[in-house]
Amino acid sequence: MFEDLIKEMERMNGQSVSVEIESDEKGYIDKQCPNEDCEFIFKVNEDDWANIFKDEAVWCPLCRHEAPSDQWFTIEQVEHAQAEALAVIQGQIHNSLRSGAQKFNRRQPKNSFISMSMKVTGGHKRTHTIPAKAAELMQLEIQCESCESRFTVIGSAYFCPACGHNSVTRTFRDSLRKIRAKKDSVDVVKEALIESVGKDEAELTCRSLIETCISDGVVAFQKYCEGMYEGYGKAPFNAFQRLDQASELWNDAIQKGFDSWLTEAEINLLGILYQKRHLLAHNEGIVDAKYIQKSGDGTYKEGQRVVISAKDVENLVSSLEKLAAGIEMECSNA
Q1: Measured between alpha carbons, how far is 278 from 272 in angstroms, rounded to an integer?
Q2: What are 132's strand-pairing partners?
Q3: 280-313 residues labelled b (16+ CB within 10 A) or e (exposed)
Q4: What are the residue ranges of helices labelled H in 197-254?
Q5: In terms of Cα–Cα distance, which of 7, 1, 19 is closest to 93?
Q6: Helices marked H in the chain
Q7: Going residue by residue through the chain (334 aa), what tens digit of pLDDT does each one get?
């Protein structure tokens, strides 16, 4: 009676179920960092996954967690695969029961005083899997400058998932993009905070948000310069936090200083912003005699607190972009 079911159960012993993963319309497949503290979702080019990525190691673009290639399925893909495997097994069992019932019924003698029949409701169930669909497209498309693999992310990426390479130039551009995003979002954030926590907390939070943009810019440019300068020697500790010293180092290395790419007015304004950042980091933003002397900023008196505006942030980012573009050009021509 249950011969087909027994045979099917024996055949299923050790059986594996494969579930295809679809790529999106641009040819990218979804991946997710297996680090539970990260779980960053990104996409990799399907052809590059097959031809460039290695089974031994893949790196998270956000946190650089390293794991073998078979550990990068998304949570949604795993859940879909589990559901598909269950559907296939249920279908195989159902179909074997249905086949067995049909054979049993055909073997029953006709015109017998006692008749028996077996019924399994429902038609044939599917025993094939449905591919896992791709998530929506991601806007930021990146190609690694080292291994040339292609991947896409939402937000920022610091490392190549195929080789783990950290791009100095891409990281710097991402940092400036985040600074602009913070600056441009202040009004929206303020309105939301006023609704939820009140005007005082909203004002304090948004002022801090703008002020951190200056520090973020200075640190981003410092890291950028340190990375780009590696081929020319070892710079003194924190030298690239000081504009004059940084300019001299680049002038010695590539025969061009910051005055090659910025006007005198832009350099003076950048110097003021650097000094404001120093005050915010080390003196709660309170103006002292050293600030006035070093910055040449006559708009403040000792004891006042510096004010950072959205225009200050834009001026900082714009000047740093010009410096980085000039440094990159000279370094590539060297």
Answers
A1: 10
A2: 21
A3: beeeebebeeebbeebebeebeeeeebebeeebb
A4: 199-229, 243-254
A5: 7
A6: 3-12, 46-51, 75-107, 168-196, 199-229, 243-254, 264-282, 289-295, 310-333
A7: 566 555 655 566 666 667 778 899 999 999 999 999 999 999 999 999 999 999 999 999 989 999 999 999 999 998 988 887 777 777 777 776 676 666 666 666 666 655 666 666 666 666 556 667 787 888 788 899 899 999 999 877 889 999 999 889 988 998 999 999 999 999 999 999 999 999 999 999 999 999 999 999 999 999 999 989 988 988 999 999 999 999 999 999 999 999 999 999 999 999 999 999 999 999 999 999 999 999 999 999 999 999 999 999 999 999 999 999 999 999 988 6
Please list, residue by residue across 3-16, b when 16 or more beta carbons sit within 10 angstroms of its beta carbon and e when fewer do. Answer: ebbeebeeeeeeee
Beta strands 28-32; 41-45: pairing state: antiparallel
Question: What length is written for the chain?
Answer: 334
Answer whether 24's CB lies under 8 Å from 151's CB: no
Beta bridge partner(s), residue 143: 150
Tell me the C-alpha to C-alpha distance, in Å, between residue 285 and each of 213, 282, 288, 300.
14, 8, 9, 12
Name the 3-class secondary structure at 118.
Answer: coil
Question: How far apart, in whole angstroms, are the C-alpha atoms of residue 275 and residue 299?
Answer: 14
Q: How far apart are CA 4 and CA 53, in angstroms?
A: 44
Check: CB of residue 174 under 8 Å from CB of residue 84: no
Separation CA 261–CA 324 (nearest Å): 9
What was the pLDDT predicted at 180?
94
The pLDDT of residue 155 is 76
Structure tokens at 222: 């410092």
Place of tokens 């998270």: 60
CA dist., res. 280 & res. 273, Å (int): 10
Q: Closest Cα to residue 261, out of 242, 246, 272?
A: 246
The answer for residues whose C-beta is within 8 angstroms of residue 113's C-beta and 6 or more apart is none
Cα angle: 59, vertex 64, 151; to 5 degrees:
50
